[in-house]
Design brief:
heterotetramer, A mainly alpha (194), B alpha+beta (271), C mainly alpha (195), D alpha+beta (185), A: mainly alpha, 0% strand, D: alpha+beta, 2 domains, six-stranded antiparallel β-sheet, two-stranded parallel sheet
């Protein structure tokens, strides 16, 4: 149990996907303009990431390891993720038009979100058990949403700020992200035994 | 090993493609083919001027409700007629299409500024703090309106807003953005060139002259031309767009204006 | 657009890193040193060129529903080839790049270029475009890596530049430094553009 | 139906072709990769235990351990792998210990992606040499001041987490191995 909690907190805050592994930067820069879209994207990523890590774990341990086909892992993982995203899109489109309105447009973006594939690869390289992988995927997605949300809030405020013209837009966002990364480093003091 | 690899990946590919193919059939959302048609016709700017969250939402609403609401503003009459044809209703066409004009025509040299403004460089901020412009009605020229225009029809020239009327889609976003309410939707008449009064200052002449050399001094000259569509209210000249016909002496009044604050533009869409 | 312009646009006017802000994850993650950036860039050149080539060959027969899946599988294949090559011949670099090498698969540059360019243009054009884009990507990574290595450890490509007494700015090598340096570089690019 | 077949056909055949290509490339390179990995292990062991002529891999409980013997076939110690979570990612360590499990001959970091310049310093000699001939009868301990007692390791300034990760990883593995070493004949 402690192990799981440790993975949860460390993935959520200390080794945050965006700020310390640089995963999912593209949507992080693209979708963090508005709070509503940040929430939508965050939810979609968390959902798909949890699902993708669990299925990838099953495939990796039940098929790839058994048949000694580890070199196929990238291809299989990406196949899982791409198909999964598409299926999820079809499902919520059919059964919940409200949810589709909210998340629909972000789903295609997720396939190319490196955070999802990254989560699957990290989970493998760290030898996580099934339960640990699920927690890892979930907290990774949650951490992504958290940073996206914080960033969107900051960016909305920054819109009215008087900054030199060359810094407007992306440069300012990147530098803000840098400062955020520094702040999140402070969380590493949370535990003395990680 | 080659064989196992091929079998594994082949089976995986087969399973996923099968699921996808079946799901895409089973879960197919019966989308109204007319909605797809409407989406195809629409320009896809997602400007939101129609009042819906985007072109797609607009198209779905059009098909569902069987009416075209206010129509697609960027698309204009022609496109709205096409949409109406798709859903089988007669378009409630706007009698004339519209464009925005900016009611401040003063350039940098004409606007007076007594103080050295140091605040935030946005109109909204300057409106609250004051000090960026002596005239309390005129354009602050930090370009809040430029930022919201979805088609980049607005530009700042010498601290004066210039509207590219061929680009303007009359979405009204600049009207909301301008803290001084300088934008006005005016009919894009097919019989005349476009005329408008480029001042919004309702102070008396003396006070206007103190802050701007371009402002309307309510001298009433424009209103005194015979058959004039101009009238004076609150010390400011207005143009009554409902009175326009091909004989209206718009140009005569413009040339007589002593402060040259009546502006005009050629009608690029043609008569 | 002739072939020369088509190639050159990736190097400057439509630079993937500084202008289009594509492929940010590897850009930031592996540029702790100039050498890493260089190797990563070369891997991208290989993958982008070949996958663009294949995608523009098969674009007509791929049905829409599985378009993304097919493209990603193709890209993943080439990435795995690079990965195997690195593991076999330059194992040190393979360890350094770690999971960021396979993450080329979801590098937005590659899928973006395949989607936006290779799936609409002919073989020759998309290959040239791919070469230009990935070459641009490579020099972007190299510059970013050099700056971070220079200030973070006083060296470039392993050669000491700033002398023994230089006290390294460790923040440059940390994630925070990556964001900040890239932000400054993009701002610099904007400045050049304005003139 | 035709559409369905096309979807299945295209994706499956793309997968087949890719699998074939990959298997081909991999089968060519597999040997080389294996050699690379073994090579690393071998050089690491040779560095830490110069006298070891013969390295024999045996499994012990859940873990693998390497028996090291000298020219005269005399057992001179063991080498073992330990893996733990560092600050960034996992850290893989190779350690060599004497026959009685009382003294470390030294350790080497095989894999780590700790922050260069901070946690990355665990790979540098200044840190690693502390483990040379280190008595570990009472386990290891990571301290922030100069090491005074047996088994103490001075943490790298600014990289306490990484230093502690190394020490703890070895410690954990040592405890496990010590209890199981009796089962090895």
């Amino acid at each position: 149990m402690t192990e799981l909690l440790l993975i949860f907190i460390s993935t959520l805050l200390i080794n945050n996907f965006v700020l310390s592994y640089f995963l999912g930067i593209c949507p992080f820069l693209g979708v963090s303009g508005k709070i509503e879209s940040a929430i939508g994207m965050g939810l979609a990523v968390t959902f798909v990431m949890t699902l993708a890590t669990s299925i990838s774990w099953l495939i990796y341990h039940l098929i790839l390891v058994k048949f000694n086909l580890l070199f196929l892992q990238y291809v299989i993982f990406i196949l899982v993720i791409a198909s999964l995203v598409q299926m999820v899109e079809m499902f919520i489109r059919k059964f919940s038009s409200g949810l589709y309105q909210a998340l629909g447009i972000y789903l295609p973006l997720i396939t190319t979100n490196c955070a999802i594939l990254g989560a699957a690869l990290f989970m493998v390289s760290r030898n996580y058990s099934f339960l640990e992988s699920v927690v890892f995927g979930f907290s990774g997605g949650l951490g992504f949403s958290l940073v996206l949300l914080v960033m969107a809030g900051i960016r909305q405020e920054l819109e009215d700020a008087d900054v030199p013209r060359v810094f407007k837009g992306v440069p300012l966002t990147l530098i803000t992200a840098g400062l955020l990364a520094l702040i999140f480093m402070g969380f590493s003091g949370l535990f003395s035994s990680i | 090993m080659i064989t196992t690899a091929i079998i594994t990946l082949g089976v995986a590919g087969f399973i996923f493609s099968l699921t996808l193919a079946l799901l895409s059939k089973r879960l197919k959302v019966e989308e109204d083919p007319r909605a797809l048609k409407v989406i195809e016709i629409l320009p896809g700017l997602n400007c939101g001027a129609c009042g819906f969250s985007g072109c797609r939402a607009f198209a779905e609403a059009v098909v569902r409700e069987g009416q075209i609401f206010n129509g697609c503003l960027p698309g204009g009459d022609e496109l709205n007629q096409q949409i109406s044809a798709v859903i089988g209703v007669t378009a409630c066409l706007q009698s004339k299409s519209q464009v925005v004009v900016c009611r401040c025509g003063a350039e940098a040299s004409e606007k007076k500024v007594a103080t050295d403004y140091q605040g935030l460089l946005t109109c909204r901020a300057a409106q609250i703090t004051g000090g960026a412009l002596d005239c309390l009605y005129g354009c602050l020229a930090f370009g809040d309106c430029l930022k919201v225009c979805p088609v980049s029809a607005l530009s700042l020239e010498n601290k004066k807003i210039r509207v590219d009327f061929s680009k303007c889609i009359a979405c009204g976003k600049c009207i909301q953005a301008c803290p001084r309410n300088l934008f006005e939707l005016v009919p894009w008449s097919k019989v005349n060139d476009l005329y408008w009064v480029a001042c919004n200052n309702t102070e008396k002449a003396l006070k206007v002259k103190k802050v701007c050399s371009r402002g309307c001094i309510s001298c009433t000259i424009c209103a005194k031309v015979s058959e004039s569509p101009y009238y004076i209210k609150n010390n400011l000249s207005y143009l009554d767009y409902t009175k326009l016909s091909s004989e209206t002496p718009l140009e005569a009044a413009k040339t007589k204006c002593p402060t040259k604050c009546i502006f005009s533009a050629k009608n690029p869409k043609g008569a | 657009m002739n072939n020369r312009d088509n190639f050159l646009k990736g190097l400057w006017s439509e630079h993937p890193v500084f202008r289009q802000l594509l492929g940010m994850c590897p850009t930031l993650a592996v540029t702790t040193s100039a050498k890493n950036g260089l190797y990563m860039g070369m891997a991208v050149i290989f993958v982008l060129t070949f996958s663009s080539l294949v995608v523009s060959l098969i674009k007509k027969i791929v049905p829409n529903q599985v378009r993304i899946a097919v493209y990603t599988v193709i890209i993943a294949t080439f990435v795995t080839v690079v990965d195997i090559f690195f593991k076999a011949y330059i194992p040190d670099m393979s360890r350094q790049l770690g999971p960021y090498l396979p993450l080329i698969i979801v590098n937005c540059i590659i899928l973006g270029r395949c989607e936006a360019f290779a799936s609409k243009n002919n073989l020759k054009k998309s290959t040239i475009d791919a070469l230009g884009m990935s070459a641009g990507f490579t020099w972007g990574l190299f510059v970013l890596g050099s700056i971070r290595e220079l200030f973070g450890s006083g060296m470039i490509l392993g050669f000491t530049i700033l002398g023994k007494n230089y006290n390294p700015l460790i923040v440059m090598i940390l994630p925070a430094g990556a964001f900040i340096v890239l932000g400054l570089l993009v701002a610099g690019m904007n400045r050049l553009e304005q003139k | 139906m035709k559409e369905t077949l096309r979807i299945i056909g295209v994706l499956t055949s793309v997968c087949l072709v890719c699998a074939f290509l990959l298997a081909l490339v991999y089968s060519r390179a597999a040997e080389k990769i294996e050699v690379n990995q073994n090579q690393r292990l071998k050089t690491a062991i040779a560095n830490l235990a110069p006298g070891a002529e013969k390295v024999e891999e045996v499994s012990l409980g859940d873990s693998t351990i390497f028996k090291l013997s000298d020219k005269k076939q005399k057992l001179i110690g063991y080498a073992f792998l330990a893996q733990g979570q560092g600050y960034q990612d996992k850290i893989a360590i190779l350690a060599v210990i004497d026959v009685s499990f009382g003294k470390l001959s030294g350790i080497e970091i095989l894999e780590s992606s700790e922050t260069p310049g901070l946690g990355g310093k665990i790979q540098e000699t200044d840190f690693l040499k502390q483990f040379k001939q280190l008595p570990v009868n009472n386990g290891l301990e990571c301290v922030k001041t100069e090491a005074q007692a047996d088994g103490q390791i001075k943490a790298i300034t600014g990289a306490t987490v990484s230093s502690r990760a190394v020490v703890d990883t070895i410690n954990k593995k040592l405890v496990v191995l010590k209890s199981e070493i009796k089962n090895l004949k």
